[in-house]
Amino acid sequence: MAKGRVVIDVERCKGCELCREACPPDILVLAEDLNSKGYRPVIMLDPSHDCTGCALCATVCPDGCITVYRDIPQKPQKKEQTLNGKALSLAA
Ligand code: SF4
Ligand code: SF4
């Protein structure tokens, strides 16, 4: 499963909670503190790294407050092939 994380612009967030309702693993919560506009913004609380980077939260946010980052799994490195102890170069 892909891993992701989100960055929330808490100063622009109005605390409407649409993103919370959309998040499958339910890892978005309202902060205790108010932002400068008097709203409780949403923050991410993801100690188990459950965010998949699905971007549903960013899609539903009416104010574009959420940026999603998703890890791209690296392909495994090919093992070097050898013949009689010498490395083989593979033709392209
Ligand atoms: S990207 Fe998906 S899993 Fe991650 S916080 Fe947003 S809705 Fe939740
Ligand atoms: S949908 Fe956007 S404005 Fe609403 S709580 Fe989430 S981040 Fe804040």
> What is the rounded distance between the termini?
32 Å
Cofactors and ligands: iron/sulfur cluster
Shape type? rod-shaped
Q: What portion of the residues fall into strands of 2 or more residues?
A: 15-25%
Averaged pLDDT:
91
Strand order of the largest sheet: 1-4
Structural class: alpha+beta
CATH-level-2 architecture: 2-Layer Sandwich
What order do the helices and strands follow? EHEEHEEE
Query: What integer value in Å does the Rg equal?
Result: 21 Å
Q: Could you name the CATH topology?
A: Alpha-Beta Plaits
The portion of residues assigned to helices is 10-25%
Domain tally: 1
Low-confidence stretches: none
User: What is the β-strand count?
Assistant: 6
Number of helices: 2
The profile of the biggest β sheet is:
2 strands, antiparallel
CATH class: Alpha Beta
Looking at this protein, list some descriptive labels:
92 residues; alpha+beta; Alpha-Beta Plaits; two-stranded antiparallel ribbon; two-stranded antiparallel sheet; 2 helices; binds iron/sulfur cluster
Overview of the molecule:
The strands form 3 sheets. This protein has a two-stranded antiparallel sheet with strand order 1-4. The radius of gyration is 21 Å and the shape is rod-shaped. Helix content is 11%, strand content 22%. The longest helix is centred in the N-terminal third of the chain and has 5 residues, at 18-22. The chain is built from 2 helices and 6 strands, in the order E-H-E-E-H-E-E-E. The chain binds iron/sulfur cluster (2 copies).
